[in-house]
Amino acid sequence: MIAEPDGPEDRLRRFATIWSRAVFPVTSTSATRPEFEKHLLPLARRLSQALAARTVDTDEGRAVGAALVDAHCTDPEALTRSLDCVDAYLVLYCGGDGDREDLRSRSARLQHAMAAGFAQALRERTLAEQEAIAQAALKAQGVVAQALHATEARFRAVFEGAAIGIGIADLDGNVLQVNGALLRMFGITDQTMRGRRVQEWTHPEDAPQTWTLYDELVRGEREHYHLEKAFYRPDGTVLWTNLTVSLLRDADGVPQYQLALMEDTTERRLLNLRLRYEATHDALTGLPNRTLFFERLEKALSAGEGQRFGLCYLDLDGFKTINDSLGHAAGDRLLVEVADRLQSCATAPGEMVARLGGDEFVALTTGPDTESEVDDLAARIMNVLLAPVRIDGRELTVRGSIGIVEGPAGERGPAEVLRSADITMYRAKSAGGNRFELADPEADARAITRHGLTTQLPAALDRGEFFIEYQPLVHLGDGSVRGAEALVRWLHPQHGVLGPDRFIPLAEHTGLIVPLGRWVLEQSVRQAREWRERYGKDAAGGPLRINVNLSPCQLTHPGLVQDTVDILERTGVEPDALCLEVTESALIGADDDLLKPLRRLAEMGVDIALDDFGTGYSNLANLRRLPVSVLKLDRSFTQSMQQFPADPVDLKIVEGIVSLAHGLNLAVTVEGVETGAQAEQLRILGCDTAQGWYYARPGPPERLHELALVDATG
């Protein structure tokens, strides 16, 4: 038994050996098979390196394909065998331990590049041969004009022995003479060919200038022309050629004949069409891919005046769950079924469906009346997705979210249109999915701004663009300032000062809320230390307290407790000077693991405030298990108290909450106090502290000092 190769070089040589054995029988070379294998080894190494590169370099594949032509592997069978060999063995012997699915995809791209490089090199080689023959034919023009001249034999040898088709006709288009290669290309006899006229060889796919060039040539206004032309054979098949037609003049320069040189490009054209199809269609579903879709979209957007377009951007809802639970094979079968259903929706002229990748599809409609057509198209798509898909004995429900963009051609580019459709699709998904939404320029602008802010957040923290404003917490009994809530702001270079509602959700989504929250906590605690050093204690004999908000992401971060301890120790601030505010919604259904860090902080002496109380489920029974010492009543309960008399229902609700809180030894803070009547009513109801514009808007720490000083001296 022969041992398998061990090292990468051994596997590479094994691959080169298999390759040479497959291709050598159809190669026109004087080298022996081992010599031919040595020639293929560097090519195999280039393919192996391209396969392992970070980014697939298709130029390497093209170079390998061209090198096969240089090695006299010009038979189409040589290309076929090479592609089959690379497909079967490149990943096996040169893939290493990489992801097989990714390596297969890379190998396929290298195969496409090899085929393109092979076709290009073969064409250039043929054109070079054709040029040599054309030069020889031009040199022999005098032989045609002077049939009795002694050089006729030399022209005859070129004429009959050429590998490309050559024909001679008079200026009226009557075929006078053709060589054997041309007869074989057309599949007819010499006698049949001689009875034909050039003008009969029209074809529906003739370029517009074909017969204009011909007329100019026979009138003597042009010496030659070159173009690609199709001909019908007698059996109805199509012959594609590279056609060069030259004018032959006599010794006096008078036009006498026309000389046609034809290269059969039918097989090459079919290969190019196959490569083009593979490059522009999705391998899994057979739908047009992103490349072809962008070509069609760009064409639609550059259409003339009065033309419009409509685009539906579809993303399947919950597709990742199917992949994760049933596997990628089941997911692929689901995508194929969805693609078939979507294809059935695009049957009208000007409509197409494409797969952009993953579970994202697009449908495009064009014409003068797409405003109603695109809505109908979206409705048809939603309708065909209703029926379950049966895979591996399971019936899977398929739903999708669609973003629709519609408008006149000529106003936007493809990238802008697709971005708007993508944003709109995610808006539909955020609204619950299984629906479609129309694009809204204002919503697009907001989404783009949010994305810009998201990408700028990390650098903004490093550049020190954030700052903190403080809003005083006032005791309702004596009007003294007992502390302040820290409210972070972003001084954006373009948008100016941004409030937390503009960037805190983005920071939570990206995880930047943890370092940002740590920075806010440290800056706020340092400020509390400065207040203590400057003003000592508050009216109740305790330190001026600083309230800092905690997001749900910070609650679950394992370093919350240690970060808080480190900051308090570094600044020399006692724990009772700090109050951490947690929203009620963040603690709904919280288990012991989530409450454990809050309990540890509370045991240290840090106050925990339940913020926005009353906006969640308000499960009062949960209060006794939460380590909170302060309830911050949401402003929605006290807005009616800004005027007199207040809503009696709201008064009863607030009175009940205050009574319950005090019964549990919890202090009550009210936010959003804006009038004196409201403050007085809350004082009567027994609320402990309040904050709002009635006392002060959020501002720099100096304003809090001034307010504290006034209260202490006034």
Main sheet: strand order: 13-14-16-17-18-19-20-21
Number of E-type strands: 21
Structural class: alpha/beta
* Count of alpha and pi helical runs: 26
Explain this structure.
The chain has 714 residues and is an alpha/beta fold. An 8-stranded mixed barrel has the order 13-14-16-17-18-19-20-21, surrounded by 4 helices. Strands 2-1-5-4-3 form a 5-stranded antiparallel beta sheet, sandwiched between helices. Helix 1 (8-23) packs across helix 2 (33-52) and helix 19 packs parallel to helix 21 (560-571). The protein starts with 7 loop residues before the first helix and ends with a helix.
Question: Which features characterize this protein?
Answer:
714 residues; alpha/beta; 5-stranded antiparallel beta sheet; 26 helices; 50% helix; disordered N terminus; disordered C terminus
